[in-house]
Specification:
Helices cover 26% and strands 23% of the residues. It contains 14 helices and 19 strands. Strands 1-2-3-4-5-6-9-10 form an eight-stranded parallel β-barrel, surrounded by four helices. Strands 11, 12, 13, 14, 15 and 16 form a six-stranded antiparallel β-sheet that branches. A three-stranded antiparallel β-sheet has the order 17-18-19, with no helix packed on it. A hairpin with a 2-residue loop joins strand 18 and strand 19. Belongs to the glycosyl hydrolase 29 family.
């Protein structure tokens, strides 16, 4: 009887191709057939094949249409479109340039004669080309620094390029940079210092705020799209008391440049990372409470780490200079490429944007010394991150949202091998066991991993760790980490294994992983990790802000996080 029913069932299933795909129909219905034939209630009607088939077809009427599983609910707070664009740019060049460049000073007094400003070889196209060729997606110019000298011909002061001999008093540094950036498709940002040591109205609250907003309006209405406006709370001791109307400024900026983000100690869109060394906290949330911060008075630790309970999305930006000073000085030399790589790991690799200051010299060009270092820095990044070993691995997961059906491939584990954050792996709902497995199918060596979250869905991961299979065939912990965010890059002593797993230990909601990379760094690891090679001894190494226990046991290296 069973054989007869299967034959009839197969025939009827084939006649319903317009409603169900044949493969899905036959697999589902035949599985159900086996279930019903072993069910005492339905076994009694199985002697009549036609009735039995009709009953089963009616019970599967809901299978006529199959829809994909929708995305999980995003978890608040979320980044705006402007903040997403900013985060995706990853690195920006800061261009400190002005009268200080010609007076060998950092904080100008506001009394330097405009005639000192004469960069006869100025070429903004070169600045932009250096940025683009080395992976920097935006440039930010000090349109006015603390000395009050303006790099554009402002209508509200004579202390500007129009009073200098450069271009016969007809020049406009901001205008030339804006044009070059637009042509090269590089984003433009501008810094307008609130502190002004030249302007007579500084110290008169109403008058100076009117002056400042008038200059801001000039910058944001003359030069096309401005993607970032940079402010700070810098002011020397003993200077005049001055109340800045920050909220008025912010509203004006957003009104005139809706696609722009505003940087300051406390946001509103992007926050300072807490120092000028180019490092962020090893735990780094984009979540933040603006009510807990004030421009010029925010707690450094709070700025570095963010707030897992924060109600605002205010990601951090790490600013640092390639040279000891912010302005160009002939006596100073740039950092090495390996120094810049370290900065990259500890800024971009910790959910931040790296804002690297590369100041033009007195000729108006970026110095060849700096260009050489930037090129070496680019080559180092390419040597490490151009080959993701994970792409050759078989990837599986402990659970997948929507199951493994053909209509739910958008959440499967292979999504983590696709560049970008707009595809991702997602687990089933109401799970607490979140693991992604990589089988390389042969032993591979590596010492760097990279993880990205789809931050458009909110920042979720609180804690994770990575295990590898050791020589004894057992899982062994290599490292632990806390937050991920847009991008987390972690280094550790070299390991060799065929299998790896990413274990997410804690998350604010179902964890989502957009990208996972496995790499080899032969530069910074060899230069920074030193281990005790004495048998049965151990040494604690602080790396990436995480503690890694490096033990030598019977000539085999075992690495675990403590």
């Amino acid at each position: 009887m069973t054989s007869e029913i299967r034959t009839s069932y197969s025939f009827i299933g084939q006649s319903h191709n317009k409603q169900l795909t044949e493969a899905t129909t036959m697999e589902v219905l035949l599985n159900e057939l086996d279930h019903h034939l072993h069910n005492p209630i339905t076994r009694s009607i199985s002697n009549n094949p036609l009735i039995f088939i009709i009953v089963l077809l009616l019970s599967h009427s809901t299978l006529t249409t199959s829809f994909p599983t929708p995305s999980p609910i995003p978890i608040l707070p979320l980044p705006s479109s402007q903040q997403l664009s900013w985060q995706l740019s990853e690195m920006a060049l800061f261009l400190h340039f002005g009268t200080n460049t010609f007076t060998d000073s950092e904080w100008g007094t506001g009394h330097a004669d405009p005639s000192v400003f004469n960069p006869t070889g100025l070429n903004a196209t070169q600045w932009v080309a250096v940025a683009k060729e080395n992976g920097f997606s935006r440039v930010i110019l000090t349109a006015k620094h603390h000395d009050g000298f303006c790099l554009w011909p402002s209508d509200y002061t004579d202390y500007s390029v129009k009073s200098s001999p450069w271009r016969g008093g007809k020049g406009d540094v901001v205008g030339e940079l804006a044009k070059a950036a637009q042509e090269a498709e590089i984003q433009l940002g501008l810094y307008l210092s609130p502190w002004d040591r030249h302007e007579p109205t500084y110290g008169k609250t109403l008058e100076y705020n009117e002056y400042y907003m008038a200059q801001m309006t000039e910058l944001l209405t003359r030069y096309g799209n401005v993607k970032e406006v940079w402010l700070d709370g810098a002011k020397g001791e003993g200077e005049k008391d001055m109340e800045y109307f920050f909220e008025n400024w912010f509203s004006l900026i957003h009104q005139l440049q809706p696609s722009s983000v505003i940087f300051s100690d406390a946001g509103p869109d992007v926050r300072w990372s807490g120092d000028e060394e180019g490092f962020s906290g090893t735990t780094c949330w984009s979540l933040f409470n603006r009510s807990n911060a004030a421009i010029g008075g925010t707690d450094t630790k709070y700025s570095q780490g963010g707030d897992p309970l924060g109600h605002d999305w205010v990601p951090p930006e790490c600013d640092v200079s390639i040279r000891p000073g912010w302005f160009w000085h002939e006596s100073e030399l740039p950092k090495s490429a390996t120094n810049l790589l370290e900065l990259y790991y500890n800024s971009v690799g910790r959910n931040c944007l790296l804002l690297l200051n590369v100041p033009p010299n007195s000729s108006g060009l970026i110095s060849e010394q700096d260009i050489k270092v930037l090129q070496e820095f680019s080559n180092l990044r390419a040597s490490i991150f151009s080959q993701n070993l994970a792409k050759s691995a078989i990837v599986t997961a402990s659970t997948t949202r929507g199951g493994s059906g053909s209509n739910n491939t958008q959440f499967n584990s292979n999504s983590i091998l696709e560049e970008g954050i707009f595809t991702y792996w997602a687990p089933k709902k109401n799970q607490t066991h979140w693991i992604i497995y990589l089988d390389f199918q042969e032993s591979v060596s590596f010492n760097v991993i990279q993880i990205q979250e789809p931050i458009q869905m909110g920042q979720r991961i609180v804690k994770f760790h990575v295990d590898v299979v050791n020589e004894d065939g057992e899982w062994q912990e290599v490292l632990t980490g806390s937050t991920v965010g847009y991008r987390r890059i972690l280094r550790f002593p070299n390991v060799k294994t065929q299998r790896l797993r990413l274990v997410i230990d804690k998350s604010r909601a179902e964890p989502l992983v957009a990208y996972f990379g496995v790499y080899v760094d032969t530069v910074s690891i060899l230069g920074n990790i030193k281990s005790n090679t004495t048998s049965n001894s151990s040494s604690v190494i602080n790396f990436n802000g995480s503690q890694i226990l490096h033990q030598i046991v019977n000539n085999r290296t075992r690495v675990s996080s403590i």
